[in-house]
Amino acid sequence: MSAGAGRTWVSALRLAVAGTVAWAGAVAAAGVAANFEVQELAAGVYAVVRQDPPGLMCDGNSAFIVDDDGVVVVDCPEASREVLAALRRVTDKPVRYVVNTHWHDDHVIGNQVYRDAFPGAEFVAHAATRAYLPGQGAANRQQMIAGAPQGVAMLRERLAQGENLQGQRLSPEERVSYESDIALAEHYLAVVPGAEIVLPTITVEDRLTLHLGGRDVEVRAVGRGHTGGDLVVYLPRERIVLSGDLVVWPVPLVGREQSHVHEWSAALDRLRALRPAAIVPGHGPVLHDDGYLKLMAELFTTIAHQTDAAVAQGKTLEETRQAVDLAELRRRFAGDSQLRGALFDTYVAGPGVAAAYREAKAAGDGR
Fold first, then answer.
1. What is the pLDDT along the chain (367 residues), one digit of tens a residue?
2. Strands 36-42 vs 19-21: parallel, antiparallel or unpaired
């Protein structure tokens, strides 16, 4: 499979892009769909954290907040049927609200599962998400559906050859990652093509507070970053933030056409100003300090400043890619990992500089 074919599939992927209660038996029975842990972060607050290794494919983290009056679900990944089964092990209370932190499939495709199970539930998202899903969202979904089988075949070929997508010898970490990518892509193809897209019934552009029994659940737009429809959920009493893909570990997920690199650091600073005791990222483990958010903010500030300087000098996009130096930040995100270095190149350096270049050119044209 050619490198060009790999880039095509990666482009499609980028568009799609306290205590523990773990049910090992369910994971064995349900396979990759149930490869998550339910972690109780505070009384009635549960993070559903995916256990897949870092890779090209991923399903999203989610959460549920349980109180006397019912449940708030945050994000609806491809594994939402399995997540709902996990919720039922915790409570039989009805789901009152479903919050989608942004518009990508691994955060919205399971809305139908909750609508069918709880016909009275309200769906909350940014106004931009409601505008995006029926048009560009549907087109991008079809691109992903069309490209995924080719990607699966390519990864199987690379596994058989013992070679990674960059033509290097496959590391043990990459082998595990590619095997996970294949399983997640096949699950995507089993779930997404037949799913109905459920649009939000309540839209937010600034802030909304949901009053759930004795608990306030704040839905906030802290700024654009991963998409133009980013929301976070904040629990002020517990100081827990559910960040969606504004925060993703081990490397951020940046979309060339959809992300807002010049604004991302400010959004992260607003998250840090909440002084959260726990941050549930869109992908990755629960974070208990703001160190990773600081690193992400430094990254996006660096990309924006260096790209602005290149654009001011009249450089083309390709010249800008050569001028922007992210070597030290790549080391801090990826370390010595061949896999994480490739993910940084794929999901940060390439699309991040392109997004910042698009924004800088648009700002210059508007002067």
1. 222 333 344 544 444 333 333 323 233 335 899 999 999 999 999 999 999 999 999 999 999 999 999 999 999 999 999 999 999 999 999 999 999 999 999 999 999 999 999 999 999 999 999 999 999 999 999 999 999 999 999 999 999 999 999 999 999 999 999 999 999 999 999 999 999 999 999 999 999 999 998 899 999 999 999 999 999 999 999 999 999 999 999 999 999 999 999 999 999 999 999 999 999 999 999 999 999 999 999 999 999 999 999 999 999 999 999 999 999 999 999 999 999 999 999 999 999 999 999 999 999 775 4
2. antiparallel
Burial label for 231, CB within 10 Å (0-12, 13-18, 19+), is: buried
Cβ atoms 99, 75 nearer than 8 A: yes
pTM of the model: 0.92
Residue 148 CB neighbour total at 10 angstroms: 22
DSSP string, 316-355: -HHHHHHH---HHHHHHHHTT-HHHHHHHIIIIIHHHHHH
Cα angle vertex 111, ends 132, 121, to 5°? 110
| CA nearest neighbour of 178 among 10, 5, 8 | 10
The fold of the 3-129+196-365 domain, in CATH, is Metallo-beta-lactamase; Chain A (3.60.15)
